[in-house]
Design brief:
The chain has 52 helices and no strands.
Length: 985
């Protein structure tokens, strides 16, 4: 076989881990690992095919047959050793490997035979060296050019992607009269295909056909593999089937539709037109026309491939195309024709079954593999490891990993990448660290592509120190590529960990190796996520000084970042610079700037950017028009909004839900019911119907117009569909409350609370206000506590509700005025004092005392209003001793008691029956040491009533009437009675 078969590592799907799953290696058994379970569905039997009693499987008809369950078919031993050469060859090869002077080394040798020359050429891995060796060989007068030598040289040049040198070698080959063979074409298709130049690879087959060479089986297999790798499954199948009947038909293959895969391989592919016009297709011997067709198929019958590698390729082709029955038929054909199976055959079948959801069939294949004396290799385990991980069976995946060493094999780089990916994805830190420790002991390094995966795991768990140590250790082992650095920075960027991303970005690297532009772009993203816009801009401005120029992505990212942060002036400046640099901004970039201007209410600027966008030839999309329409709708400018709606239609852009919803908002702003209703009905005809924003806009419009039944109709529809949100409920509460329908408002508030829709300050405020209006002050206090528990900070609206609670709850006007004044002046702990006061007023004393402790532990000087709240909180909860201690502490701080202090103390004395204290306060009031105050009189009266001295309460009540009627205080009998010391004190 003149073209060795190699299984393409990228054929197993995702680049991450299911690539690189196959390669030959001896292994023993997995049977003990899988246990004694029966592997159903892989029924190998004689002539009659039995019906599967289990019924339909994942892939009906995927059953494999052979003629006997006892015959062991031949299989291939794929272990490969480097050839040992005799004579002078070993010393020549060593000298060439170590020395620089190729010619001197070869001149010192005796005359080499053509076979020895071929061996020396084959053993050269450097394309420069093989050209020098070949030139030396050709320099001899008796040298006869032969196709084998040219094939070897062309292969090395192709693998090194030295296309110009390959072209010159091909021209020379033709000039020397050397005709290309099947081996030549097979090799050329292979190297071009592996370089990702699929179009050019297929053109070699056209060239082959023009030169009258019919592809042999190896060449056919190579073409099928290249097409398969390009995911041109139908063409691969057609080429194979045409070959079987002696045809090569590529005339109607649309090469422009075939994707080249090699743009990142270091050499940009030439165009098809240029390729066809080069010497490659002008030069080359032409065979006699009689030899153009297949000469080996003289009887006209369909040929069958005989090589194991061909069947392996076909199985993988049909598996990737999802044609499971065809894959099974190919496998069965191997059995029928007695084609030797190898490890790759079974690995391919196992992966094909498992990746299409038939894991039990894959397990059954493993058993049959062993029955035929074919040992699983490391990559067999890798396949099962990946399959079990994808199925969520982590224990089985880890057993696969452990089994590799147990049976005497060694995990390879794919094994380690796979197991680390599986464990890191599930944040299994201990297991990951165990695997890494095992790798260290065996001398294996963590693959570069696994480093970002491990760091993401540590970042997910907040173990940033461990992530840092891990990275530092592996940077010492090996310099990271730019692609890996980008991946690591992106991990930190996504988490908002800009400092960690910065450490990687500015971290140690090889001297003279500049940062790639993608690294700058992802670092800009990290700063943007953390809202460090100045750092992002500074990095952008400085990158040119380090030899890296911003690209289109850099500008687009910065503009979108600044726009998202409402830094629209900076975004506009960079947009201008971007255009000066010759880059054309994306529609998304223009849209970000327009949306930012619209959001900030700077609509003339938004219009300027829109007009610039149209002028430079960037077609606006529905998002651009949606931003403009929404901006004008928010300001109630219906005419402008409708104007852009019409422009949108002129550009052939259909209005979506967002645009129509914005127009509904515009009509709502100006109270235009008919226009809004028309648009709402139009949205109903769109897929999905009105969204929650459109429905809420209509409810809001009906609420403003006082149309209860219409609003309720939409609201009830939203509730039934489970789509009503906080805005829907709040708007209905507003409607019911404004119309005096308090019972209905409370019902909506209760339902909103039970629905778990209280998630922000605004929603809490709406419900609390509804409860206060209905006099449900305790429920309001409970909601306030729930709000605090959810760590939602009260806003101005919340405090407005709280002051209403204090007034309705019976707190004295003076106390409310005092604490409200402290809040508005922003005095220390005034906000906490208001919350404490609310809890005390509504009777939630446990919450009040807990809140009170917060500011009493403060190390800053407190205002007298805060002490008054503390006295009030302790007094109303019955903690009189603590209330009086607060009063003494207030005096220790040189804060004089004020009217609110006396009102609160009166309440404390009354609850404790401390008539002496009440007498002192009353005496100060009586002798005008305290200005006569109705609230204080009432507090004293209430205190006497609390102390069960209703008689004294009545007397003070009379005194209050006299005081506020302008009469003099009289020393009556009652005064003497009030002066009497309280009994027991």
């Amino acid at each position: 076989m003149h073209c060795s078969y190699s299984y393409n590592s990228g054929e197993l799907g995702r680049e991450n881990l299911q690539s690189l799953i196959f390669s030959p290696c001896k292994l023993q058994t997995l049977q003990s690992f899988f246990g004694t379970r029966g592997f159903l569905g892989f029924n190998l039997h004689s002539q009659k095919q039995r019906i599967n009693p289990r019924g339909a499987r994942v892939f009906p008809g995927f059953k494999l047959q052979c003629h006997s369950t006892t015959v062991v078919l031949p299989h291939k031993n794929l272990s490969r050793k480097r050839k040992k050469y005799g004579g002078v060859l070993p010393s020549i090869l060593r000298a060439l490997e170590l020395g620089n002077n190729v010619e001197d080394t070869l001149n010192s040798c005796r005359k080499l035979s053509p076979k020895e020359q071929t061996v020396i050429l084959k053993e050269q891995s450097s394309w420069e060296r093989i050209l020098r060796v070949f030139e030396w060989i050709k320099s001899h007068e008796d040298y006869v050019p032969n196709v084998i030598h040219y094939n070897v040289v062309l292969r090395v040049l192709g693998r090194a992607q030295k296309w110009d040198e390959l072209r010159l070698c091909w021209i020379e080959m033709a000039k020397n009269g050397v005709l290309p063979t099947n081996n030549t074409y097979s090799m050329l298709v292979d190297v071009y295909g592996k370089a990702g130049l699929v179009k050019e690879a297929i053109l070699w087959i056209k060239h082959m056909k023009l030169r009258g060479v019919f592809p042999d089986e190896v060449t056919m297999n190579t073409v099928v593999r290249v097409l398969k790798d390009a995911r041109e499954f139908d063409w691969a199948d057609r080429f194979y089937k045409d070959w079987c009947v002696g045809k090569v038909e590529l005339g109607d293959l649309d090469l422009e539709s075939v994707a080249d895969l090699g743009y990142e391989m270091g050499s940009a592919p030439v165009s098809l037109k240029h390729f066809l016009s080069t010497e490659l297709f002008k030069i080359g011997g032409r065979r006699p026309i009689s030899k153009i067709m297949d000469s080996s198929n003289t009887d006209g019958s369909a040929r069958k491939p005989r090589l194991t590698a061909t069947y392996n390729t076909l199985i993988d082709l049909y598996g990737k195309a999802g044609r499971m029955k065809d894959a099974a038929d190919v496998f069965a054909e191997m059995l029928k024709l007695g084609v030797a199976m190898d490890t790759i055959t079974f690995n391919t079948m196992i992966h094909t079954c498992g990746s299409h959801g038939d894991l039990s069939e894959a397990e059954a294949l493993l058993t049959k593999m062993e029955e035929r004396g074919i040992s699983p290799d490391t990559k067999t385990y890798n396949i099962f490891l990946s399959l079990y991980a994808d199925a969520g069976n982590i224990d089985a995946a880890l057993k696969c990993y452990r089994k590799i060493r147990k049976v005497g094999l060694f995990p390879d780089v794919v094994t380690h990448r796979a197991v680390l990916h599986v464990l890191c994805e599930r944040n299994m830190i201990e297991e990951v660290e165990t695997v890494i420790a095992e790798m260290k002991r065996s001398g294996a390094l963590v693959h570069e592509h696994s480093i970002p995966v491990v760091i993401r795991m540590y970042a997910n768990e907040g173990l940033l120190d461990k992530a840092k140590l891990f990275l530092e250790e592996h940077i010492l082992d090996d310099e990271l590529s730019s692609k890996t650095r980008v991946a690591i920075i992106d991990v930190y960027a996504e988490k908002g960990l800009w400092a960690e991303a910065e450490n990687v970005f500015f971290g140690k690297r090889d001297s003279g190796r500049k940062k790639d532009v993608v690294e700058y772009n992802v670092m800009v993203k990290a700063y943007g996520k953390a809202k460090l816009y100045d750092k992002a801009f500074s990095l952008f401005k400085g990158m040119r000084n380090h030899g890296t120029w911003p690209n289109e992505s850099t500008y687009n990212s910065l503009i979108q970042m600044f726009s998202g942060g409402d830094l629209v002036d900076q975004a506009r400046d960079i947009l201008t610079e971007m255009q000066k640099m010759g880059f054309k901004p994306q529609c998304l970039t223009f849209c970000a700037v327009i949306a930012c201007y619209a959001r900030l209410g700077q609509l003339p600027d938004a219009v300027d950017v829109y007009e610039e966008m149209v002028r430079v030839g960037v077609k606006p999309n529905e998002v651009v028009y949606g931003s403009l329409i929404n901006g004008f709708s928010e300001t109630g400018n219906v005419e402008e909004a409708l104007g852009y709606f019409r422009k949108m239609d002129e550009f052939g852009i259909s209005a979506n839900q967002i645009v129509l919803t914005s127009l509904i908002k515009a009509y709502s702003k100006v109270g235009c019911l008919e226009g809004a209703k028309t648009l709402y009905e139009a949205i109903k005809d769109l897929e999905g119907g009105p969204d929650i924003v459109a429905s809420n806009s209509m409810i809001n419009l009906y609420a403003d117009l006082g149309l209860v039944s219409e609003a309720k109709l939409i609201f009830d529809d939203l509730r039934q569909k489970g789509r009503a949100d906080g805005v829907s409920f709040a708007t209905m509460m507003y409607l019911y409350k404004n119309l005096g329908m308090l019972d209905e408002a409370i019902d909506v508030a209760d339902e909103m609370k039970q629905s778990g829709l209280l998630r922000d300050c605004a929603s809490f405020n709406k419900v609390m206000a509804c409860y206060v209006t209905n006099g449900q002050l305790i429920a309001c206090g409970e909601l306030l506590q729930e709000m605090i528990t959810q760590r939602i900070l009260p806003d101005t609206g919340t405090f407005k509700v709280m002051f209403t609670v204090l007034k309705k709850g019976g707190l004295s006007t003076e106390a409310v005025t005092q604490i409200e004044s402290s809040y508005r002046e922003g005095k220390p702990y005034a906000r906490q004092a208001v919350i404490t006061c609310v809890f005390s007023t509504v009777g939630l004393h446990a919450f009040a005392l807990e809140s009170c402790e917060t500011f009493l532990k403060a190390e800053v000087a407190l205002d007298s209003s805060v002490y008054n709240v503390a006295i009030y909180a302790y007094g109303t909860s019955g903690k009189i001793d603590k209330a009086l201690k607060m009063f003494m502490k207030m005096q220790d701080e040189d804060l004089e008691p004020d009217l609110v202090t006396y009102i609160n103390l009166a309440g404390c004395y009354g609850k404790a029956g401390m008539l002496e204290g009440l007498k002192r306060i009353y005496s100060q009031l009586k002798y005008r040491e305290i200005e006569p105050n109705e609230s204080l009189f009432k507090a004293i009266i209430d205190a006497y009533r609390s102390a069960k001295r209703h008689d004294l309460a009545e007397l003070v009540s009379q005194e209050m009437k006299f005081a506020f009627d302008g009469k003099q205080y009289v020393h009556s009998e009652s005064e003497h009675e009030l002066d009497e010391p309280p009994p027991g004190l």
